[in-house]
Write a structure and sequence with these properties.
The chain is α/β, with parallel strands linked by helices and 239 residues long. It is 36% helix and 21% strand. The termini are far apart.
Amino acid sequence: MNKIVFVEDDPEVGSLIAAYLGKHDMDVIVEPRGDRAEEVVLREQPDLVLLDIMLPGKDGMTICRDLRAQWQGPIVLLTSLDSDMNHILSLEMGASDYILKTTPPAVLLARLRLHLRQHVAAPASEKPASGLTPHKALRFGTLAIDPVNRQVQLSGSNVTLSTADFDLLWELATHAGQIMDRDALLKNLRGVSYDGMDRSVDVAISRLRKKLLDSATEPYRIKTVRNKGYLFAPHAWDN
């Protein structure tokens, strides 16, 4: 059973969603105050954190930002605020997803399960006897990506990435040399289709480039292919 901390100050919303998720093998702990959220998460060590934005004591965006520095599990914003700016800002703060409260419960469940699957890595005791891991570490010149420990190094230095950023990098790197369009990235990472307006992939790509020391004006490591998508250049990491 997966454990979820749901930070939500509306008791009706909290109880309804907790009851629905509880029917689908999820143990939900509801915390009504934003200023107690981090303490609860660090104490309970859940598999996923679900956050409202408008909260007493501390808002969800700030919780997401502060929590991300201490905890690497999936953080999903669940809110009634249908705002592109808030959506983009939440991803900048390190959120894994931004979901509206009007989303059907079955779709919410599917997206939470997707983030839980993506985050789980098999412990050493469950690795095959051959010593092979389900996903081998990738290396491109000075860039090393370890999917089991979810660590990235560039020129020997650790690169700090949020869960969403790591998942995006892994998706691009495992398709090195191939053009990945926004629709494919959104479907593979979040289980949703590109609606023609969602700029979250562009924001995340920009953030990745900055952290991986790619050029902002003429990117050569994660390239933009006009009207097609993005391409991870496998031979651009030698220096």
